[in-house]
Amino acid sequence: MPNIKSAKKRVKVISTKTMQNRVINSQLKTEIKKANAAIANGAEDKAAAVRVAIKKIDQAAAKGILHKNTAARRKSALAKKLNAGA
Predict the structure, then answer these.
(1) Over the stretch 42-77, which tens digit does the pLDDT of each residue have?
(2) Residue 32 and residue 50 in contact, taking contact as beta carbons nearer than 8 Å
(3) How far apart are the C-alpha atoms of 52 and 29, rounded to whole Å?
(4) What's 54's domain CATH number?
(5) d(CA 48, CA 38)
């Protein structure tokens, strides 16, 4: 348990940020799954689902939750699947 005031604050801040990151990661995974399912099912709104997933990926990368190269790789994979299924 921290004794120094700044260390106590860091514990609070880290736990808050961890929860925020967990929420964003969960939303990101959900949108990617929806996009993959839409592509697999040949849904009419598959392009829209991919757009939403890419938007979430970009937001996560902007906030530092995903590394920019990881974000680029995931977006590329989604686009490749979309174009192959089109």
Answers:
(1) 889 999 999 999 999 999 999 999 999 999 999 999
(2) no
(3) 12
(4) 1.20.58.110
(5) 9
